[in-house]
Amino acid sequence: MNIPADLKYTKNDEWVRVEGNIGTIGITDYAQGQLSDVVFVEILVSEGDAVSQGDSCATVESVKAASEVYMPVSGTVTAIHEELADEPEVVNSDPYGEAWMVKVELSDPSELDGLMDAAAYEAYCAERE
Amino acid sequence: MLEPLVCELSQPDRQGVGYPPSDVPLSELPAGLTRDALPLPELSEVDVVRHFTRLSQLNYSVDTGFYPLGSCTMKYNPKINEEVARLPGFTAIHPLQPIETVQGSLALMYHLQEALKEIGGFAGMTLQPAAGAHGEMTGVLIMRAYQKDRGETQRNKILIPDSAHGTNPASSAMAGLKVVQLPSDERGNVDLDALRAECDDTLVGLMLTNPNTLGLFEEHVLEIAEIVHAAGGLLYGDGANLNALLGIARPGDLGIDVMHFNLHKTFSTPHGGGGPGSGPVGVAEHLVDFLPAPVVDIVEPAEEDIPPLYGFVTPKKSIGRVKAFHGHFSMMVRAYTYILMHGAEGLRRVAEDAVLNANYLMARLKDTYPVPYGRICKHEFVAEGKVEGAPGVRALDIAKRLLDYGFHPPTNYFPLIVHEALMIEPTETESLQTLDAFAEALLQIAEEAREDPDLLHEAPRTTPVGRLDEVKAARELVLKCEVPA
C-alpha cells in the first residue's frame, strides 16, 4: 500500500499535502482500495467557501458504497478539481496525484499537529486489516 | 440465454386480436391529437404469453429457492395470504366509498392496528406509510413535530449508529435534520461514551436498529433509552429486524418511542419486485396526537346486537397525510392473515426458529468465514467474505459463485463496518436440509477459492447472463432502450 511520507492523514482516510499555506486534499490509497472501483465523485464545496475541519467536502461513490470526504483542516477553498467528475477512475489509479479534490488556504495550521504522519497512518491501516 | 425484448420480437402487421369492421360511423379526431408513429410491438397472443412466461422463469424468488438476503427477511410468503387478499370483499371496493359500505375492510385495518400495537408495545399506529423508509420518514417527522410542539425548536440533530441501514440517515436528511453518526464498540453495540458526548439540547433523538444490522441484540438498549430520554430526545426503532423479537420482546417496553414495521419482511407480504411494501408506524402514548391523518378508529361504539361503526379520525396535532388514501391496503390483508394464522404462540415460534436457523448457519460457517462479532446472533449474522489461502477472492466472487449453486447470495458489502461483509439471514421458513445444502455450498466454494480461484472470478457461469460489469454500468449510465424504428 502506498503511504507517501510527506503527507498528513486523518482517521477517515483523507490526506492533506501542505505547500506554503495551501493544503491539497484527497483520499488515500487504503480508502480507494476499500471502496473498490470509484464510479462517481461530487465535490460539495466551491471556490471561496470558508470550511471547517470535519465539514464534508466531497462524496465518493463506488460500486460497493458511497462515502463522504471530510475536510482534514479548516480554511478558505482556493480551488476544486471539477474534472474529477468526468474521470472518477483516477481516484483508484492515482489517489495522491491526479485525484486531488480540494485546495484550501489554511486558517489554522496548528490543526495539522492533530493529524497522523505516514508512520502513524500505516499502523492505523494495519490495525484495521 | 437472453430473452429478446418484446419490441425485437415484433413482426409487421402481426396481431393478437382481430377486430370486426366498425358498425358505427367513424369520427374524425382533431389533427393535433393524432400521430402516425407509435412503435408498439406487433405480436400474436402466443408470442406475448411465451415471452412473458420465459421472462418470469428467469426470475429467482422465494417460491423457487433459498433467499438469505441479510436484513431483508426474505421469508416464504404463504399462499393463504394471496387467497384472502383476492376475496371480492377486499378487491371490489374503492377508498372513496362511504364508510358504512366498507366496514369489513375498516375492521380489518383497525384490528391490524391493534395487533401491531400489541406486538410492538405501542399506544398508537398508522398504516399509511408505503414501505420501510417511508415509515422512517413518517416517524422522524412525528419526532420533529413533538419537539416543535414542546417549544424546543432548536432541536435539529439526530444520532445514527454506524451499523444502521443507509435509509436512516437518508430519511432524517429528508426530514430536514442534521445527521450525526455514532461509532460501534468492540461488541458491536452503540458506543455509550460517544452517545453521551452528543446528548445536548439540540437532540431530536436517536435511530436504533435492534437487533442491529450485525444481527446482534443491542445489549445497552435500556441504558441508551435512558440517556436519550434524559437529554430530551426520543428513541426511534428501525423495525426492519423485528423478526428476531416477535413475541419475545416488545420494542415499546424497551423504551422505543416510535418504530416502523416492515409488513413485507416480518409479516410475510411480498418483498422487492413483488411488493409493494408496507411500513406501519407505531408510537408511544406521548406521540399519538402527532400520527398522520386519518387513523382508523371506532367512531360509534358497539351496542348489544349492533357491531361498532369503524371510521376515520384525525389526531389532534397530526403531521398530516403521508400517503394517498390509506396505504397499501391489500398488504394489510396479507399481514393480518399471517398474524391470525400464527396466533401469539406461533409468532413467538417464528422469532425462535429464525434465530435458531441463523445461529445454526453461523456455527457451521464461522471456522471457514470469519465472523468478527462472534457472539450469539439473532435472526442474521455477518461473516467476512474472505478465505484463508485465497487472497485474490472477495465477497463479491463468493456471492457470484453461489448463483452457480442455485442460491440467491447473501447481502454483500453491508454493513460497512465489516470488511467484505456477507450478511446472511436464513429466516424461519427454511428446513434443516436447505440450511445444510447452503452451508455445504459455501464450504465447497471456500475449497474452490483455494484450488481454482478463477471458478469464482468468472462466476456465475450457469445463469442466463454472466458477471455483469457493474463499474461500466455505473460510469456509463444508459437509462433508456432505443428501439430501432
Keywords:
heterodimer, A: 129 residues, alpha+beta, OB fold (Dihydrolipoamide Acetyltransferase, E2P), six-stranded antiparallel sheet, three-stranded antiparallel sheet, 9 strands, B: 485 residues, alpha/beta, Aspartate Aminotransferase, domain 2
Q: Explain this structure to me?
A:
The complex is a heterodimer of chains A (129) and B (485). Chain A is an alpha+beta fold and 129 residues long. Chain A has one domain: RNA polymerase II/Efflux pump adaptor protein, barrel-sandwich hybrid domain (OB fold (Dihydrolipoamide Acetyltransferase, E2P)). Helix content of chain A is 17%, strand content 35%. Chain A is built from three helices and nine strands. In chain A, the strands form two sheets. Chain A has a six-stranded antiparallel beta sheet with strand order 1-2-3-9-8-5. In chain A, strands 4-6-7 form a three-stranded antiparallel beta sheet. In chain A, strand 2 and strand 3 form a beta hairpin. The longest helix of chain A is centred in the C-terminal third of the chain and has 11 residues. In chain A, 37% of the residues are buried. Chain B is α/β, with parallel strands linked by helices and 485 residues long. Chain B has a domain of 262 residues: Type I PLP-dependent aspartate aminotransferase-like (Major domain) (Aspartate Aminotransferase, domain 2, 3-Layer(aba) Sandwich), CATH 3.40.640.10. In chain B, the strands form three sheets. A seven-stranded mixed beta sheet of chain B has the order 1-7-6-5-4-2-3, with helices on both faces. Chain B has a three-stranded antiparallel beta sheet with strand order 10-12-11, covered by helices on one side. In chain B, a hairpin with an 8-residue loop joins strand 11 and strand 12. The longest helix of chain B has 37 residues. Chain B is globular. The mean pLDDT of chain B is 95. Classes of the chains: A alpha+beta (129), B alpha/beta (485). Chains A and B meet through loops of A and helix 13 of B.
